[in-house]
Amino acid sequence: MPSDDLFAERRRKVDELAARGIPSYGVDFAPSATTDEARRLLDAYEAEHPGADTDSPDRPVVAVAGRIMQLRDLGGAAFAHVEDESGRLQAWFRADRAGDAHAMVPMLDLGDIVGIKGPITRTRRGEPTVLVDTVTLLVKSLQAPPEKFHGLQDQETRYRKRYLDLLSNATQRRHFATRTRLIRALRATLDQRGFVEVETPILQPIPGGGHALPFETHWNALHTDVYLRIAIELHLKRLIVGGYARVYEIGRVFRNEGLSPRHNPEFTMLEAYQAYATYDDMRELTESLITAAANAAGPQVAEAPEGGSAPCEDPLLRTAFGRSLDLRPPYRVATMVDLVREHTGIDALASWDALHGVAASIGVEVSRDLGPGGVLLEIYEQRVEGELWDPTFVLDYPAEVSPLARRRRDDPRFVERFELIVAGRELANAFSELNDPIDQRARFEEQARLRAAGDPEIPPIDEDFLEAIEVGMPPAGGLGIGVDRLVMILTDSPTIRDVLLFPTMRPQHRGGDA
User: Fold this and answer.
1) Could you give the 3-state DSSP secondary structure of residue 81?
2) Residue 471: exposure state from Cβ atoms within 10 A (0-12, 13-18, ≥19)
């Protein structure tokens, strides 16, 4: 039946029910059990009463609410699958039972939300089933849900109308429950280590802490432009100046960039800062956080070394994006210079003043405006990063591309910074934080020259932040983890849209507009 006719037929049933005095909306019902609890209640009853008859009068009575996802009317009996968040349970409407439950079946449709009440039993095929004595229509669905067997096949519709995706795919609901467990595990790990969770501004006068084009809006009351934050970093550092020893925030950040399998304009970051720590301490913290998150995700089927797959009870041995992944610490540690040498044969230190030519010789295109540190980063990102699969801490980034990190004392061309690369993508970024206000101002001023030359991703100088560290910021280590990318890896999701309940989508043009 065409969708318009289906809608009209369901709307007609609403009117017919109303004429009978049966409302389709605004009805109260108090479930006594979820579908999962009802099944467990049946198991307990059968353990105490082996061989009990289907219609035994002492069977426990349950009241269950859920959505009808399958419905078969066989005349003298009808069967439905009623589904709630915990699972699904069969409902058996029998004409020979007292009451009008069976007579209600012709007025029910797939997608309706109902409350059913009756004894819990088991059919001859062994399926847990409620023998329905009463059925209460709670919500009449005017739109048919996705077909249950095949689910929602169109990817665009899955993301735009996530509620339909969740209705048709219980696995997808569990998938997002896993995300919740991961974030809970990250919080618990930080809380156990004495970190204080805080909330910092999302609307900011200067979008600092990273290089990205911000979203801009206007504050009408004060006649001023403000920006959605691109990072959490600078406000957390202000708290370290203010006397907190360990702080963290898990929150949304926003970057005015395009869409890709790895990028969404709004995403979730964890940032944590610890006084009197270095990037070495942040490495240990990062391993603990990744381990806790993987354990929260639970065991997964991991790829066997000889090919194929094999069950694995260790949650740190997983499959991601078609390859096995070993998350057991300790993780590999290597400098960017050493990794570039390993993968390309280039000795960046020996070629420092000639890196533009070296990059060109291996086909890496770089801007002429970049200094040697920027060229080294381009070589690394284009030729090395994607080849790093099992977790690797990439240490000692060029100072040129790390304006908030502390310089190495033995070689000021580099800073005490690492990125954790997992499955060929950045998962975490950490520094020994720069707390020298003189050096910080000089680096901000260098960045300002690049901004003036036309780079819109570089933020203006944040004078309030500079004043804060002039008061004195203790030596500190800072860490940022992309929560969405972590969830992608631990749920083997190839695109970030699969781990966001409501990902950003391109507008749908209607009426023939381009």
Assistant:
1) strand
2) exposed
Among all chains, which residue has been given the structure tokens 């200067």?
Answer: 206
For each of the domains in the chain, give its residue range(s) and CATH number, in order of start: 3-145 (2.40.50.140), 175-331+390-499 (3.30.930.10)
Decide if 496 contacts 484 (C-beta within 8 A): yes
pLDDT digits (tens, 9 = 90+) for 357-378: 999 999 999 998 899 999 999 9
* Beta-sheet pairing, 309-311 with 203-204: unpaired
Angle at 145 between CA 141 and CA 147, to 5 degrees: 145
Q: Give the whole-angstrom CA distance, residue 473 versus residue 421.
A: 29
Kindly give, in sequence order, each residue whose CB lies less than 8 Å from that of residue 88, ignoring residues fewer than 6 positions away.
Answer: 35, 66, 69, 81, 82, 170
User: For 378-407, b where at least 16 C-beta lie within 10 A, e where not — what string?
Assistant: bbbebbbbeebbebbbbbbbbbbbbbbbbb
pTM over 0.85: yes
d(Cα 29, Cα 138) in Å, to the nearest integer? 8
Q: Which residue, among 6, 247, 34, has the nearest Cα to 120 in the 3D structure?
A: 34
